[in-house]
Amino acid sequence: MNPSPVIGVLALQGDVREHLIALAAADAVARPVRRPEELAEVDGLVIPGGESTTISKLAVLFGLMEPLRERIAAGMPVYGTCAGLIMLADKILDPRSGQETFGGIDMIVRRNAFGRQNESFEAGVTVQGIEDGPVEGVFIRAPWVESVGAQVEVLAEHGGHIVAVRQENVLATSFHPELTGDHRIHGLFVDMVRAAS
Residue 68 pairs with which residues in a beta bridge? Predict the structure, then answer.
């Protein structure tokens, strides 16, 4: 039996606690990550939802932007939800001024594509690689993926738009599985981290 991998949750902004709970339920050792030395101690990382421009600014402020880019480029498994998906995109269609991303997935994303806060919704999403039926996707000011490069696997679509993707060790969803009590996507990510370490 593989020991439980240590997975960080980028704790600059967003629903950090819910991801820590979901990862623990999926048999990982979960820790908040705010500093480069904490990043150095984890086998994988979750980038939670929140505000992508704020996460971008805080990552620079906390000295995490470059170390994170380096770890992602070196193959560390990363999973981003909602704003986390935006942060993992190589290109944003409509970036705010000064907004940077960590990159890692050859995709172009559109921010707030599904509408504003009051247009948030839940929907069943069939995700490739997830057994036992659709996952409940919570879409809150969610982005979608406009287009992907040849190396990117599309795992799910909703309403004709790409909402879950994977490129090698990097996984991203437009929606928030951590808010539902269904930990199957976190389980998939924990398996990815195990396989990589």
Answer: none
> Half-sphere exposure of 38 toward its Cβ, with a 13 Å CA cutoff?
16
Tens digit of each residue's pLDDT (9 = 90 or more) over 34-61: 999 999 999 999 999 999 999 999 999 9
Q: What is the dihedral of CA 142, 148, 154, 157, to 10 degrees?
A: 40
User: Has 176 been annotated as catalytic?
Assistant: yes
What is the spatial distance between Cα 55 and Cα 70, in angstroms, rounded to a whole number?
Answer: 17
Q: Which uninterrupted H or E stretch holds 136?
A: strand 135-139
| Its pTM surpasses 0.85 | yes
User: Which position among 18, 19, 158, 176 bears the catalytic label?
Assistant: 176
Catalytic residue among 18, 19, 158, 178: 178
CB 175 within 8 A of CB 137: yes
**How far from chain centre, in Å, is Cα 78?**
7
Output the average pLDDT for the chain: 94
Tell me the per-residue pLDDT of 107-135, one tens digit each, with 9 for 90 and over.
999 988 887 767 789 999 999 999 999 99
Catalytic residue among 82, 158, 183, 186: 82
Instruction: Please confirm, yes or no, whether 186 is among the known catalytic residues.
Output: no
Q: Are 133 and 125 in contact (CB under 8 A)?
A: no
100 as an active site residue: the answer is no
Joined tokens for residue 92: 């944003």
